[in-house]
Each structure stands twice: as C-alpha cells, then as structure tokens.
User: What shape does this take?
Amino acid sequence: MDNFVVSARKYRPTGFAEVVGQEHITTTLKNAIDNNKLAQALLFCGPRGVGKTTCARIVARLINGFEEKAETNTLNIFELDAASNNSVEDIRSLIDQVRYPPQFGKFKVYIIDEVHMLSNAAFNAFLKTLEEPPPYAIFILATTEKHKVIPTILSRCQIFDFNRIQISDISNHLKTIAKHEGIQAEDEALHLIAQKADGALRDALSIFDLMVTYSSGKGITFKNVLSNLHILDYDYYFSVVDALLTQNHTQPLLILDEILKKGFDGQNFIVGLSEHFRNLLVSQDARTTQLMEVPDTVKKKYAEQAQAAPPSLLLSWLNIANQCDIYYKSSKNQRLSVELALMKMAHVQAVLDFASLPQQEAVKKKLIPNP
Assistant: This one.
C-alpha cells in the first residue's frame, strides 16, 4: 500500500502564486526579493493555518534560487521550533551557527516557528544578533500570538500580518483540489467545510480529507458533511421562522425537541438561530447581501423569507435570542430557557401590535381598563 500524503502537505504552495488569500503579503515579499530590498529580520504573525511557515519557506528558496526539492535546501534553510527549543542555550547554539557563511547559495535562512514561546532570557540573548546579523543571514520569525513577543524584538523586525482566509477563497481552492483528484463534490458541501475551518486553510484541507474518506468514492455531498461534522441544516432555521411568523409556538418546540434528540446542544441551536435572524436582516437590503457567508442557493431562500418578516420583528427576535444565549450557561433548566425564548418570539408580534394601538381603540377592545 502506498503511503498516504494528507492534502495539506501534498498541495502545499511552492510559489507565491499558489498562496491562497494573502495577496498583500505575497506581493510585498515578491517585490522586495525582485528589487533586492528584503529585510534581514521578518515577523510573520496571524492565525493558524494561513500560510506563515509556507511563505517563509518560499522566501528562503527564492532568495537562494533553489528548486522545490533541491538537495542543498538543508544546508541553507534551518527551521527551529521555539515551543520545544525556548531556552537561552538553544538561542546561543543558533547564534554560533550564524557566524559561519553558507557553503551553497547566497543566504542562510533561519525560520523560527512559535517564536512567542521563547523565554525572556532567550529573547534578550537574541536581540543583538537580530539587530545586526551578518549580511548572509535572514531571520524569519512566525507566531500566532504577536502580543506575547517583547517590544524590543518587534522593533527590530519587519512585521507582516496574515489575514484569516475568506470562505469563498477556501471553497474555490477546495473545488480546484477536488477537480484535480477526480472527486465529485457539491458546492454547498465545500462551502460548509470552508465555514467550519474558520479561516484556516490547513483545517479545511484536513476536513476535506476526512470527508473524502467518509464518502468512500461516492463524492462529497452536503448531507454527508452535515452528518459527519455534526452541523445543523439551514432548513431547521427556515422552518422555525416560518412557524414563528404564524405566531405558532407549538411547531418551534417540536423542532427543538427533534434537534435535541439528535444530540445537538441547545446553545448551538440558539446561536445558529441568532445568525439566521441576522442573515434575514442583512438580506433585506441588496447592498448588504454580500455580508452573508452562505452559498448562493441559500441566499435566495433568505431573500424570500426576509420579505415576510419586518425588521422590527426580526430585531425583537434577535434580542430575545441574544438574551437567551447570554444567560444559557447560568440557567438551572437550560432547555426551558430555550423553549421560553421560542414562545416569546412566537407571540412578540401580538405585543408589538398592541403597543401600536391608540389608547381609545385599546379601551374599546377592552385590552386595557377604562381610565
């Protein structure tokens, strides 16, 4: 059996053109290399799985003119994991290596991952070398927590802030990989994987591999992704809102019971329902429709349902759902708190109608006593 290579490694970018969602970084680095204006100390910071180490390796290869699998890479490119090599002795050993010029190529590149894990003593030992390195040495520091890096290190580095990758960019990249691998995949399924990855392409590729294994050659479908990743379907929320618009609290309670029996948490439901209300509000104006991170087919459903729900009602529902979410953890009966929120939503329209009635008309209808 051939050794399986995960997609995150198999499709790791080998050039700046292949890096997804970081054009502001790759353009700057490419121009700096082309114009021979690359700083000797770089700090790459940003969330996990967005391409920090990948870009560092690309820079190291480009400035030395190496190919992807050149044997001389190991003689010029040094990678240090600061999470497990964070002492003063480790940094002193690195400084001793820096003194010797490269045997091949022009530069020795030192890539230090998770640099925020270095101790204060190690940081201080590194300061002088980082500020005035030999002309053949380039330091690339990578971290997910820039605020933990001491200011004296930050002031000596050129800082590059990596962004969370957009859902649309991740989805398109997954579509390209699926096509290359000959895997049938629904657009809605890939979009859901991209949402679950939370801006990290590496996480998205890991989930993609999981779904390919789960489907066993039958293609990646939206229903399989929902089932495997334990995500609530959009249809549940559309059904709840349809029932709330008829001022019927029975149907939402039955839907909640079905969701809880499937093993979902009540807070996940109420958070998802809040997001649904927000999307309905956003979809009522064509200018803000782009703020919804959902597939195009689902956007049409939101637009249709939003026409039946006035903004004042949606805001009232959203406020009730938000209050339920805030006090959910401290509630002694968490299921009841969600059910109570749904019943309030079902009858909030009656309260709004009553508040809009003139006083005399309300007296005639015996809604309030005659003063």
The two ends are 87 Å apart (CA to CA).
